[in-house]
Amino acid sequence: MSRQSISFTKPNDEWLKAQIDNEEYSSKSELVNDLIRQARKQHAQIDWLRAKLEKSERSGFKDDTKEQILKQSKSLLNG
Questions:
Q1: Which of 5, 20, 45, 54 is most buried, judged by most C-beta within 10 A?
Q2: Tens digit of pLDDT for each residue in 19-57?
Q3: Does 24 map to a domain?
Q4: pTM of the model
Q5: In a domain, 3, yes or no
Q6: DSSP character for 23?
Q7: From CA 36, how far away is CA 45, in angstroms rounded?
């Protein structure tokens, strides 16, 4: 594992210390690594959603009503 030296603003450092004091994490390193993992996971979810939206936009827009869309969705779910 690589070692890094980073500086925190006072409010961020106090928040980190509070998480450790609350025994949420055993060290700042563990907490920062967890925050990075969460950010990476969130980024992956955003990328997935963005790809889905782009695919939908490329397929064109429909003039279907809400009722028609609901009917189609139910039909697909029920086979």
A1: 20
A2: 999 999 999 999 999 999 999 999 999 999 999 999 988
A3: yes
A4: 0.65
A5: no
A6: T
A7: 14
